[in-house]
Amino acid sequence: MTTSWLVTGAGGMLGRDVLTELAGDPGAEVTGVTRHQLDITDPDVVSAAVDGHRVVVNCAAWTDVDAAEDAEDAATAVNGKGVRHLARACADSGAVLLHVSTDYVFSGDAEDPYAESAPTAPVNAYGRSKLAGEHAVAEVLPTTGYTVRTAWLYGTHGRNFVTTVLELACRRETLDVVVDQHGQPTWSRALARQLAALGRAALDGRAPAGVYHGTATGRTTWYGLARETFRLSGLDPDRIRPVGSAAFPRPAARPAFGALGHGRWPGTGVPPQPRWNDQLPAALGTPAFAALAATARGSQ
Asked: Within a 13 Å sphere around the CA of 151, how many CA atoms are in the beta-carbon half?
């Protein structure tokens, strides 16, 4: 018996990895739609796309954090109202919804990892828009809606911090990297694997609906991640220099602390993700990252 899956935002970094992960499941019949193929702000189009699917994985999102400051309504149209359209379509068709959210729903002033039930208090427009999506899932799908918060995502199918530092290594002798923001670097392939497992657990009745945290375990800073990326890539980590966030003023405030707890996974049959510094070597061993590293070493 096959299970029909719909993956929105299938052209993005995470969406492409979710498609790859599900392609290895002989029991999965998968439809992937990009943002050009499915406008989640159109409720009628969303309803037609969701119909006939058992699991919907929503990787579609407005992701430009800084641009959201001057376009909060547009960001919320996608991250809030668009998610509500997906949730309603899932409610009508009886589908499970796995919605990807962010650590930016928190204020970032904690000292210990945020529990799934911790109070939310976003400090920027992007975080507020994502929180609107979380509320939509909880309100419309109280028993079949899953919000999976992630953070510091990197992968081979889009621009991200890890690819950026490797590209900059080809052009700069030293790199200044922020040392006062703390989080959990998460490989998009590891999150894709966890999302697929959560979808199966939801269908089997092993995972209660609600909020889960889909990040690597452990924590570091952007500076720590840059140094470890250099070290594992055969580059001198001392080329990375620590600076404070004030060195890089941005339109949108960033939470200083974004580490998330993983207390809801036990009992679901889906394990928490590996530590960030175990994920990173596996990711850097993939052909795309290995090629970037080789180019960086060749430029030294």
From this structure: 35
Residue 153: enclosing H or E segment and its boundaries?
strand 153-154
pTM: 0.97
Encode pLDDT of 232-252 as tens digits: 999 999 999 999 999 999 999
b/e sequence 39-54, b meaning 16+ C-beta within 10 Å: bbeebebbbebbeebb
Catalytic residue among 104, 114, 126, 154: 126
* Fold of domain 3-155+186-218+253-274: Rossmann fold (3.40.50)
Question: Which residues, at least 6 apart from 198, have a Cβ–Cβ distance to it below 8 Å?
Answer: 98, 146, 148, 207, 212, 268, 270
- pLDDT tens digit sequence for 31-42: 999 999 999 999
| Pick from 189, 246, 186, 247: nearest CA to 213 | 186
What is d(CA 241, CA 253) in angstroms, rounded to the nearest whole number? Answer: 22
Each domain of the chain, given as residue ranges in start order, spans 3-155+186-218+253-274
Structure tokens at 167: 């590209």
Q: Is 154 a catalytic residue?
A: no
Element (H, E) at 229: helix 222-232
* Beta carbons of 168 and 230 less than 8 angstroms apart: no
